[in-house]
């Protein structure tokens, strides 16, 4: 009599006298995952283990992380542009006072990074 695993097309291999099921994760399209996706992956592994395992075993983890990365990057860029306008950080400032422009842009990027982390990466 075949086991349920064998009825579903599963196979076994023998190790030290034991039959071990040949388990494979479903294949999924490889997509590049940027910094945002890597941060979210670390978060899932540490704090959302069930979600991580479900995405991994369903073969959807890579696609999910690539999508999170895209959303986070778009949000980050929109936030920076909005903050630059509100704070009057212009190309003219960059030409006239590069040091001040750099400091203000670093501040804007840090604020935008915190917002993206809060809204998307660690949510």
Descriptive overview:
The mean pLDDT is 91. The protein is mainly α. The longest helix has 27 residues, at 61-87. A hairpin with a 2-residue loop joins strand 1 and strand 2 (18-21). Helix 2 packs across helix 3 (49-58), helix 2 crosses helix 4 and helix 4 packs across helix 6. It contains six helices and two strands, in the order H-E-E-H-H-H-H-H. It is rod-shaped, with a radius of gyration of 23 Å. Helix content is 68%, strand content 7%. The protein has a two-stranded antiparallel sheet. It has one domain (34-121).
Features of the shown structure:
mainly alpha; rod-shaped; 68% helix; 6 helices; 123 residues
Brief account:
InterPro entries: TnpV. By secondary structure, this protein is mainly α.
Molecular shape = rod-shaped
H/E topology pattern = HEEHHHHH
Number of helices: 6
Mean pLDDT, all residues: 91
The percent range for strand residues is: 5-15%
| Helix/strand class | mainly alpha
Uncertain segments = none
Q: Largest beta sheet, briefly?
A: 2 strands, antiparallel
Spatial order of the strands forming the largest sheet: 1-2
Rg from Cα: 23 Å
List how many beta strands DSSP finds. Answer: 2
Q: What count of domains describes the coordinates?
A: 1
- The helix fraction, in percent, is 55-70%
Question: Kindly, what is the distance between the CA atoms of the first and last residues, rounded to a whole number of angstroms?
Answer: 48 Å
